[in-house]
Design goal:
The complex is a heterodimer of chains A (350) and B (254).
Chain A lengths: L6 H24 L7 H10 L15 H35 L12 H15 L9 H22 L7 H25 L4 H9 L7 H20 L1 H7 L3 H6 L4 H23 L5 H13 L3 H25 L8 H24 L1
Chain B lengths: L1 E9 L3 E10 L4 E5 L6 H8 L7 E6 L2 E2 L5 H7 E4 L11 H6 L14 H13 L15 H14 L4 E5 L7 H18 L2 E5 L3 H7 L2 E6 L2 E6 L1 H4 L2 H8 L3 E5 L6 E5 L1
Parallel strand pairs in B: 3-8, 3-9, 6-7, 7-8
Antiparallel strand pairs in B: 1-2, 1-4, 4-5, 9-10, 11-12
Helix pairs in contact in B: 4-5, 5-6
Classes of the chains: A mainly alpha (350), B alpha/beta (254).
């Protein structure tokens, strides 16, 4: 069976995914220290959706509940949703471009590069305001794009990017970048808490402005990348074959790199480094639905959102009232998965 | 139809120098020569994977360097030595990828594309394998799937880089027969890099023998495969005879 023969099936799966995401959002909003019932949660969310809100009234719900829900929990969950989608789609498209199943923005060091860029701007350009937080986002973008470029060129052998060199280049630059970040922390004790946030990943400071900034960048980027998903399939045949099938290989690589890096930078500037999402989600989708990127990319966007909302909710509820950084949760899931993939690749090589 | 005029190419050292070849539509060409003589480079220059340093190539009087890759992909398909793919795709998916240059960006494969891919798979006996993962196939099956992809691309020219070099003799003959059939029934120009002189003589209309970065001899098999030429190019003593069953030139080293 091929993509177009199963198109209606994939559409159904996508619709079910959207429904699942909505349910996860509502259920996750319900978790937290303040006790707000599921019914109240649903009512408050529904009352804010245009048209639908005519059918719901907020009678009998405490004002503080509404505030906690709308200004604390909901932006945080939506941010986790966007970050999860963006990281998964970036992971899937890196895996296509590098023809390498282990590629992930965290493993390649791109996230660390973005974090370093963000740290530098925070420390040195703290006074410079350019549309509020976007200066940090610019720093993150520059850091991310330089890292992508360096890692790609270290790992590259001709036009191929072998698994081993890619992982080594990623690990090496991850170490270097994290030590520079640690060094900056020791010299700038005033900013230490902010910097720690970048390195562990957290949504605890999420606000509506982050949600808006991130959705402006990620939503069009994800749509853009998904229009290239057929080309990404063909890239897997190898660059020469792809070119002979009429794909503008260099152009495609450039677009995908720039857009992906932009997304990683935006994500890191609002949530810090959250690892392994881009690895786990696209792989899980491939295991269930096959490797066609026309399926993998949209479903990764949904799956990544669901996965990260669940991880973030866990990070909030495991040890109340304190929080575990969400990056730690994704790593606990991610590392065993990563080892499993490495093991599988190893077996194939023998 | 394809004109190659004074073409030179070098990486760090010279790989091709002063190549002049004229390729006519509907013929079966074989490119032969010792390892390192520039056969594959010549093919990669024709497919525009490499850009030439000097000279000109024209396809139907259009300058190759000016043809957009999407347009070229409708005229010429390329079968490379097959490599593993890291992700699982079915044979049918792989063959359908041959339709890429004919499908606009925002649409997916149509019924017609499916039909064309199906015919290509039937022609190469890969239809039964359509739902198998490309990575589980044997070398011969995978090569046939890749040839099917090239057929589905519906081009007038098919370039092949050593399409049979890792296959057993049965698979070799099967693939060569399919290529010959394509060449005869659809008037498709075939240009194949081969190692086996006798297979090249049995299937090709025209031979291009490469030696030391240049074309040593270019002509029908009887003209190219002579004792003197093979001694000069391969440094080998051979006896030339005719295959008693087919009457084609046959080279026997001794």
């Amino acid at each position: 069976m091929t993509y177009i023969e199963k198109k209606s099936y994939y559409k159904r799966v996508f619709a079910i995914g959207v429904l699942l995401l909505l349910i996860v959002i509502i259920v996750a909003t319900n978790f937290g220290v303040a006790n707000i019932s599921l019914k109240q949660t649903t009512l408050i969310i529904m009352s804010k959706i245009p048209i639908v809100n005519n059918f719901f009234s907020l009678g009998g719900i405490k004002y503080t509940s509404v505030i906690i829900l709308l200004n604390l929990r909901l932006p945080r969950i939506l941010l986790a949703c966007l970050v999860g989608s963006a990281l998964s789609v970036v992971g899937a498209s890196y895996q296509g471009i590098f023809k390498n199943p282990m590629a992930d923005p965290f493993i390649l060091g791109v996230s660390s590069g973005a974090a370093l860029g963000a740290t530098i701007t925070m420390v040195f350009l703290k006074e410079v305001q350019f549309f509020g937080i976007s200066m940090v986002a610019c720093g993150a973008f520059i850091g991310a794009i330089i890292t992508t470029f360096i890692v790609y060129n270290i790992a590259r052998v001709g036009t191929k990017v072998p698994v081993v060199t890619l992982l080594l280049a990623g690990v090496a630059s991850n170490y270097l970048l994290s030590s520079i970040i640690s060094l900056m922390m020791t010299f700038n004790r005033d900013n230490i808490e902010e910097i720690v946030m970048w390195t562990m990943g957290s949504f605890s400071t999420a606000g509506w402005s982050d949600v808006i900034l991130l959705s402006i960048i990620t939503v069009p980027s994800i749509l853009f990348i998904s229009t290239f998903s057929r080309d990404l399939n063909i890239m897997l045949l190898g660059e020469e074959s792809a070119r002979s099938l009429g794909i503008d290989v260099n152009g495609l690589k450039k677009y995908i790199f720039v857009i992906s890096t932009l997304m990683v930078a935006a994500v890191v500037s609002v949530s810090g480094i959250i690892g392994f999402v881009g690895l786990i989600v696209p792989h899980a989708i491939r295991m269930i639905f096959g490797s066609d990127n026309r399926v993998v990319i949209p479903l990764s966007a949904l799956g990544g959102a669901i996965f990260l909302i669940i991880c973030d909710t866990l990070s909030r509820v495991i040890l109340p009232p304190s929080e575990i950084p969400v990056g730690i949760i994704t790593s606990i899931f991610g590392v065993p998965f990563f080892i499993y993939l490495l093991y599988k690749t190893k077996k194939k090589a023998i | 139809m394809i004109e190659i005029n004074n073409v030179c190419f070098s990486y760090d050292q010279e790989v091709l120098k002063d190549i002049n070849i004229n390729i006519e539509r509907g013929k079966f060409y074989t490119i032969l020569g010792p390892n390192g003589s520039g056969k594959t480079t010549l093919l990669r220059i024709l497919s525009k994977s490499l850009n030439i340093n000097n000279g000109e190539i024209f396809i139907d009087e259009k300058d190759l360097s000016q043809i957009k890759s999407k347009v070229l992909a409708k005229e010429m398909s390329v079968v490379l030595q097959s490599t593993e793919i890291e992700f699982d795709f079915s044979v049918q998916d792989i063959v359908l990828m041959g339709r890429t240059p004919h499908i606009p960006r925002f649409s997916s494969e149509s019924e017609k594309d499916m039909e064309i891919a199906k015919n290509a798979m039937k022609m190469t006996n890969t239809w039964e394998l359509r739902n198998k993962s490309i990575n589980t196939l044997s070398g011969g099956e995978r090569q046939r799937a890749v040839v099917a992809r090239a057929i589905a691309q519906e081009t007038g020219i098919i370039l092949l880089d050593e399409p049979i070099s890792h296959l057993d003799i049965h698979q070799q003959i099967k693939i060569m027969n399919q290529l010959k059939q394509l060449n005869k029934s659809k008037n498709i120009t075939i240009i194949a890099v081969l190692h086996d002189l006798n297979i090249a003589a049995a299937y090709g209309d025209h031979m291009i023998l490469m030696h030391d970065c240049g074309v040593y001899k270019d002509g029908i098999p009887e003209e190219v495969l002579t004792e003197d030429i093979i001694r000069a190019v391969y440094g080998l003593e051979v006896y030339i005879t005719k295959n008693p069953k087919t009457g084609k030139t046959f080279v026997m080293p001794f």
